[in-house]
Amino acid sequence: MDWDDLRVFLAVARAESLSGAGRALKCDAATVGRRIARLEEAFGAKLFVKSPQGYALTEAGSRLLPHAEQAEQAMAGAAEELGGSAGRLTGQLRIGAPDGCANYLLPQVCAAICDANPGLEIHIVALPRVFNLSKREADMAIAVSRPTAGRLTVQKLTDYQLHLAAHEDYLGQVGPITTRSDLKAHRMIGYIPDMIFDKELDYFAETGGEAVGLASNSVSVQMQMVRAGAGVGIVHDFAIPFCPGVRRVLLDQVSLSRTFWLIRHADDRRSERLTRLADALGQGLRAEVTRLEALAASY
């Protein structure tokens, strides 16, 4: 058995299919199947059971998984140590994040990290759902709720603010919004109710707002609706500087605070490489949220 065999095993365990593992490994599914068969023969045990849902780990496969992940971390650490990077981060790292953070914060923060670490490649995966770190959909994920279950390590990144907002052209047409009761006369913009994947995103339940008239599962789409003058929505303060003409309303009556959390697999806590990236992300996000919220407050 060698590391390459374990790499194939991990790919199948995470993709739960030979074809998915093949795409990740850049080889065909038949080759992946042969490699798994060879590994099972070497161990004298079945590692996967095939079902209509895909390939699931057997008891033996589940016992092998943490050892394979430790080997993966050791190989990544060795590559970092021997790569002559002089303390810099190198290689490929994938960060999962909700689309608001991914659109308005991570591009500039990750660009600065890459500038300071030539040879580092960062993939930003923006999805409106919770990431599965056990399947290695990402090396780490940013979330708006602190998880309470799973083998995870959790680190607070930064708090951020949200307010009701509308475009100045819209406000010029309909007049000022001075009380919550005024909102009844306006179309509200927000999340599709049955697609809210985290209770922290249910803003109108907390504020007692009106029913949503225009909705999207994407916070970026919601912001573009506000920018287009389609109504009033709750938006991230840090997104306002990217949307000329959007102005906050009812500042003294509706104000929300949320937190970004950095989630990592528990087995990664020994990875100096990921810890250094986590520290850089935390510093960068805190500084960027502070900068953008100050800009939003100046409009």
Automatic annotation (TrEMBL):
Pfam families: HTH_1 (PF00126), LysR_substrate (PF03466)
Gene3D superfamilies for this protein: 3.40.190.290, Winged helix-like DNA-binding domain superfamily/Winged helix DNA-binding domain
Protein name as annotated: LysR family transcriptional regulator
Keywords: DNA-binding, Transcription, Transcription regulation
Keyword Lipid metabolism part of the UniProt annotation: no
CDD domains reported in the protein's UniProt record: PBP2_LTTR_substrate (cd05466)
Family affiliation: Belongs to the LysR transcriptional regulatory family.
Organism expressing this protein natively: Sedimentimonas flavescens
Domain HTH lysR-type: 1-58
InterPro entries: LTTR, LysR_HTH_N, LysR_subst-bd, WH-like_DNA-bd_sf, WH_DNA-bd_sf
